[in-house]
Amino acid sequence: MRVGVIGFGQWGPNHVRNFSQLDGCEVVRVCDFSDARLAAAQKFLKGVAVTRDPADITRATDIDAVVVATPTGTHHALVKAALEAGKDVLCEKPLAPTAAECAELAALAAAKGRILMVGHVFLYNSGVLHLKTDLDRGELGRIYYMDAVRTNLGPVRSDVGAIHDLASHDISIFNFLLNAQPLEVSATGNCVLQKNVEDVGFLTLYYPGNVVCHAHTSWLNPRKVRALTIVGDHKMAVWDDMNNLEPIRYYDKGVTADHYSSFGEFHMILRDGQITIPKVKLAEPLTRQDNEFIACIRARRQPAANAEFGHAIVRVLEAAHESLRQHGRAVKVASA
Ligand SMILES: NC(=O)c1ccc[n+]([C@@H]2O[C@H](COP(=O)([O-])OP(=O)(O)OC[C@H]3O[C@@H](n4cnc5c(N)ncnc54)[C@H](O)[C@@H]3O)[C@@H](O)[C@H]2O)c1
User: Fold this and answer.
1) Which of 248, 251, 310, 311 has minimal Cβ neighbours within 10 Å of its Cβ?
2) Half-sphere exposure (Cβ direction) of 213: Cα atoms closer than 13 Å
3) Distance in Å, CA 273 to ligand 1 centroid
4) pLDDT at 324 (0 to 100)
5) Best of 5, 6, 8, 11 for a ligand 1 pocket test (most atoms within 8 Å of beta carbon)
């Protein structure tokens, strides 16, 4: 499988490393606008050909699969060119800045019979996969709410704000775990460092079945936190993605209302049981994701993070930005 990678900034090198190490895979060419980054690519992967022209990858006859790891605003044009030339494409998240662009790319991929995967890497994270298995078999019972925190100091972007950059991860996790999409979103935040680029976002997402999810995302925060709390009527879970040894804890805790008189009196009974720490086998999520891209190409099957999945996330991001403009008023998420 001959792979071309467009974009060798912060994240592109991780794809180059993974694809060059996968069995039966070869990174044949790397593209970037920056000569310094191309020099870095040649140092990183000895003998790799480099180019400043994306068409040398999207239209190359010696390349089967294209990886797009450039800033979000460039994704649509690059992915479109690669799909039109008959390539299978792995595009970094978010798929494109607008839902209309995502819809166009999804339709093009379908019309051309191509794999279009979006780099929603948390679908390949060991902790998330463990939670997904347990949620699907009802371990936590009915889900009441989820609360995610994704904060750090930097990296600060200027092409997209913290909601597109960071909350896209949390929305992908919520959608994946709940196997659903939010109906409405309410978002507040603040643009402090740059005009019209939010540094902090607080999103409340309303899912079917009265499930509420909240995401606090910021690149202007003193602490690096990657945490998710899930509260169900049977158990509660806390996932700490910064903890490599024991990322998940299940709490056998809950509250039940005990009605004890005919006058509607009741009291709350707290259940404060065991805390369980499951064994979670860690693996690099990007390796799994890139492996899955190649497996999907070989089997001609769609990945979980396909174009429709990526499109759904961008519809939520659009609604979140509209809500942000309206100071947090709940905004309906467009349906597909
Ligand atoms: N999945 C994750 O956890 C994760 C993490 C980081 C970044 N990302 C995503 O990866 C993408 C890239 O992020 P980054 O942090 O590497 O950005 P970056 O700005 O560090 O690097 C982007 C590179 O692309 C090059 N470039 C820009 N436009 C180009 C074009 N049209 N053709 C060729 N090269 C071009 C730039 O010169 C730069 O070297 C973004 O979509 C981002 O959201 C994903």
Assistant:
1) 251
2) 29
3) 46
4) 97
5) 11
